[in-house]
Amino acid sequence: MSKRITKKTALHTAVAKAAPPADSEMTAPSAAAANWRGYLRVGNIITETPGVKTFRLLPSSGDRFLPFTFVPGQFLNVAFWIGGARMNRSYSISSSPTQREYVDLTVRREPRGAVSRHIVDLLKVGDQIEAAGPVGKFTFDGTEADGIVLIAAGVGITPMMSVIRYLTERSWPGDIFLIFTYRTPTDFIFAGEVAALQRANPKLRVAVTVTRPEGTDWKGRRGRITKELLTQSVPNLASRRIHVCGPPAMMEATKAMLLELGVAPDHLKTEAFGATKPTPAAAGTALKQTAAATGPLVTFSTNNKTAKIHVNQTVLELSEELSIGIENSCRVGTCGLCKVKLTSGEVEMAVEDALTPDDKANGIILACQAKPKSDIAVEA
Ligand SMILES: Cc1cc2nc3c(=O)[nH]c(=O)nc-3n(C[C@H](O)[C@H](O)[C@H](O)COP(=O)(O)OP(=O)(O)OC[C@H]3O[C@@H](n4cnc5c(N)ncnc54)[C@H](O)[C@@H]3O)c2cc1C
Ligand code: FES
């Protein structure tokens, strides 16, 4: 326990004042080792805000450098055994890819969350974490556009921090706008470091708004993100590249405002931090289907089970009803853990972000997204 850091200032000061990485470490990041899977060791734990902690993860092998590289905005899939069940979750990398010796994951404790409570309450320095990745297409490394608008709510700031840290370390010449909303003044994750980055990077402009300032002495902007806040904070908003990350309701509202303000859909990227409903892994929360299923037949060939699927049910949800263990985490089509091979029939998928061209050519589908259009068979 002696190495545990509980004051955020220690790490953040170190990051903000770190000498620029050597040229050899400043090459453009890539996700070359995207299929990496292994263990990382908790090196430090930093309390960011009430209920949010950053876990600095080091190679567990004793090597100096991480066994993978990543692009700002990507995430890791982590797995824990909790109460006898294996549970997978995804966490965005909040550190910069120029830091080759560690990755930071910043986790908010969900009051009834199975894994986030385990991580925030129980993980300690020296613990090993099973992880895989990096994965994700919610990325920005400065080559995609000559400016970037980052809109975040709450813990949705994590992928944005990786982008801001990286672009600032690289002295990227473009404008960076961060628009951040959080509940109370004490919930500003990375407040000290964002201020330090602003001092270091005159191209970084930050606008924050607090949704629940009542009972505090907060003198800044109040309320949710509005069209006025967006247009006042970002000149020529409609022509900008924009990334949005936050709870589903905030993302939907923000997307709708941006489209109304004339932002082209292909300039807009979003990352959902998971399904809107509790996942079945949270004890007692699995949704039970009551009516008889009337959809196509789904055969899980490895388990030798066949059943009709419900209207709008996914292959993953049916597999859970039948107690077929398909691994999963995000349930929104980004992490790739639920990949299974489709051996016959046809499915439609709303999101296919986690599929590579090779996957598609080989009949791999995402069980969390797949809804059968005909009778199907999958290898699971
Ligand atoms: C690509 C991606 C990146 C992500 N990055 C981050 C990140 O950087 N930081 C971060 O903190 N999270 C991140 N997440 C979210 C993270 O993966 C988890 O979903 C989150 O930590 C909650 O997991 P959990 O096991 O604690 O909650 P779960 O047990 O899965 O519960 C899910 C939700 O349901 C609620 N819930 C649980 N049980 C009940 C119940 N009985 N009744 C009502 N509600 C209930 C929980 O409070 C929680 O909000 C990311 C997700 C994705 C997909
Ligand atoms: S569970 Fe993440 S892509 Fe399906």
List keywords for this structure.
single chain; 18 strands; Ubiquitin-like (UB roll); 380 residues; 19% helix; six-stranded antiparallel β-sheet; Elongation Factor Tu (Ef-tu), domain 3; Rossmann fold; five-stranded parallel β-sheet; binds FE2/S2 (inorganic) cluster; 8 helices; binds flavin-adenine dinucleotide
Q: What would you note in describing this structure?
A:
The protein has helices at residues 8-17, 114-122, 158-169, 191-200, 227-233, 248-260, 315-321, 357-361, and strands at 36-49, 52-59, 75-82, 85-92, 103-108, 128-135, 147-153, 175-182, 204-210, 242-246, 268-272, 297-300, 305-308, 339-344, 347-348, 364-366, 371-372, 376-379. 38% of the residues are buried. The protein has a 6-stranded antiparallel sheet, covered by helices on one side. α6 links the parallel β10 and β11 (268-272). It folds into 3 domains: 8-135, Elongation Factor Tu (Ef-tu), domain 3; 147-272, Nucleotide-binding domain of ferredoxin-NADP reductase (FNR) module (Rossmann fold), CATH 3.40.50; 297-379, Ubiquitin-like (UB roll) (Roll), CATH 3.10.20.30. The chain is α/β, with parallel strands linked by helices and 380 residues long. Residues 75, 89-92, 106-108, 110-117, 136, 155, 158, 271, 273-274, 278-279, 281-282, 284-285, 330, 332, 334 line the site of flavin-adenine dinucleotide.
